[in-house]
Structure formats: structure tokens, C-alpha cells
Task: structure prediction
Amino acid sequence: MSLEHAILGFLNYAPMTGYDLKKAFDTSVRHFWPADQAQIYRTLKDLARRGWVTVEVVPQEDRPNRKVYHITDAGREELRRWLRTPTDPEDPRVPLLVKVFFAGGLTNEEAVALLEAYAAGLRARLEEYARVPQQAAHYAEAIRSPREVFFWTLTLDYGVRLTRAALEWAEEAIRNIHNQEES
Amino acid sequence: MSLEHAILGFLNYAPMTGYDLKKAFDTSVRHFWPADQAQIYRTLKDLARRGWVTVEVVPQEDRPNRKVYHITDAGREELRRWLRTPTDPEDPRVPLLVKVFFAGGLTNEEAVALLEAYAAGLRARLEEYARVPQQAAHYAEAIRSPREVFFWTLTLDYGVRLTRAALEWAEEAIRNIHNQEES
DNA sequence: TGATATAATATGACCAGTCATATATAGGAT
DNA sequence: ATCCTATATATGACTGGTCATATTATATCA
Result:
């Protein structure tokens, strides 16, 4: 599970509430690890149970108390251990390809429409990527060390490259379908 | 859920048992939609409940009866409907990137090792892709129409392109890490 | 002889994640 | 006047999928 370790990663920057964490995820790693609000709270409970974080309850009037989570030494150790561990391969599931595999039963027009819709989604994603740096900069209180920015940029670059590759594939596929005889 | 529709896709080629389906998945679409044996059986039950497939029980001695599933007209309609429906975007989760995002706390050597291990996995995957055509040809009783082969080839091409893009990213990242000052 | 593979279906426990909804108040927008 | 948003945490129902295991006979391999 990457979520628990991503949370440790953020708490290693600064103590945060579940609410803060949700915002942190949404403005930084969402593109490769979206986090559900309910799941964040459940995972925080689990992290506390394991002793990797502690809770500090900050009373508030008129709204729920803030539960500020702090990473512990054990948590920091676990974070480092995990960072150095080779990664589980990612889930290869690509719903579009399942359709493409069985697309022989479609007309050329239908198949092209399928790929065009996919390509449109990819183009939209590329535009989103272009907006990420501002969003993140806006949120990141103090932009962290150049080293951290370097690694953060790597993740963005990955997204751009992979999305471009998928887009090129889709565009070439569309061109090739036109040369296909419909059975 | 793509699994149920992939099953419909296979049953549209020919009636099959759950056991047959598992083999079909493993020799064709596994790379973009792996299927768990237990999940196949549960899904078949569900498809039957919805009237998209019917079951024909073929008695056998000495081993469990074969339950041969046949696609129905309703199932064929559902398959076509699904094929023409624009696709849900794929799950963007990439565990490696979560680590890279927080990799500022690693030494350059540790970060490089992480990416090298990842790159090794990608190279292995590329070699696997090279072996897919033979495997699939071996299994596909009658290689289906050229049109079907065309679409099947598209899915393989997607895998190769995306894996190559990821590999190039990793290799360039490794080169760049060496120019990074360790904080 | 004993282990493993093949054929075939099935269940139970579990896990990570999603979605809807609940609570409670303040402030701004339509 | 009403709706939406922000702040903040929490639970219950559900879903798709994984893993281990069970059954039962034959055949193969070391």
C-alpha cells in the first residue's frame, strides 16, 4: 500500500490533519496517487495503531477538533525503509485496451470514435499537467529544497512522457484503422 | 468493470468454461487485464444472473462437471453497447512515483538503485512482449480474421510503446540524478 | 515412491478503495 | 431567502479483486 507511506512522507514535511493531507494530495501527487478522504482518515487511524504517528488533539469552537498527526521516529524509519525498497510493479490494467482487443466487431467509424474520445482525454490530461506547477507552488508554503523540487519534477515528467506516448499510439492507430477493410 | 465484458468478448468467439477462460486471459489480454481465477467464476455466475450468458452442464466422470457458458443475444447486445461506449479513464496509480516524489531523503546512490530496479523490470516486460505473439498463436485455435489480428496487434503495440517511454524516462532520470547535489 | 501437473469448480477471509451520508457552524454568493 | 463552500472528522455499505484452500481423479516425472 503506497497511501500509508505517502502520508508518512507528507507528515515528515510537517504535522498535519487528515483534512490538510487531503489538500496536500490533491495539489501534488493526485496524478499518480489519488487519495480518497475516507481512506485517508482510516489509514491515519491505522498508522497511529502501529506507532508510526501520534495524534495531538487541538480543540476548536464551532467546528470539529483538529487532530494533528505527527510522525514518530519509528515512522521516519519506516518511511526510509520503504523508500529504499524496490517497488511492486504497477497494476497494468488499461480498460481501453480491453475494448480495442475486441473491437473487430465494431465498424471502422465506431473504432475511430472510441480512440478519438480516448485521445481527447489524453490531450486534456496534458493540459492539466501544464497547470500543475502553479497549483503546487501556490500550495507549497515554502518551496522546499532544490533537491526535492528535482524529484517532484521527475514525477511530472513521467506523466507527460507516458501521456504523450499514449497519444502518439492513439493517433497512429486512428490513421491505420482507415486502411483496414471492414470484415 | 471490464472483466465481465472481456468474458463476454471471449464467449462471443466460442462457448467456454471458466477454466478455458482463465487460459484465454492468460494467453492474450493478461498484459492489460489480468484475471483472477476466483473472480472469473464469480463473474460468470453474475453474468448468468443477468441473462447475458447461459450455462450448459456437461457431465464428466472422475472430475467436476464442465459448465460451458454460452453468450445470449442479450449478452451480445451488451457487448456491442459496451464496445461503443467511451472508456472510463484508467487508474493512474504508479507506486514508483510516490517513492520518487519523496526521494529527496535518499542518497543519490539509493535513488539510482530504485530507478535501476524499476528499469530492469521494464526491460523484462519488453522481453515478455516479444514472446507474446508466439504464445497467443499457439493458443488461438484458428487465428481469427486479419481484422481481429489487427486490433490485437494494436494492444501489444500500446504496451511496447508505453514501456519504452517509461524506460527512457528512467534512464534519463538516472543520468540526471548524478548531476544532483545531495542536500 | 512421492511429488507435481492437469482438469474443473468453488468458498471464505481479506484488502484497498469508492461513494454517500452525517454532523456542525460560518460566511459568501445567487 | 436559499444555496453553496469551507472547515473537520467519521461511519456504513459496497465493489472488484487477491490469496489460500478444498475436492477428486489421472497422468507424468524424477
Q: What stands out?
A: Residues 1, 3, 35-36, 38-39, 42-43, 61-64 of chain B lie near DNA strand D (CB under 10 Å from a C1'). The two ends of chain B are 46 Å apart (CA to CA). The helical segments of chain B are 2-13, 18-26, 37-49, 73-84, 95-101, 108-139, 146-177. The mean pLDDT of chain B is 93.
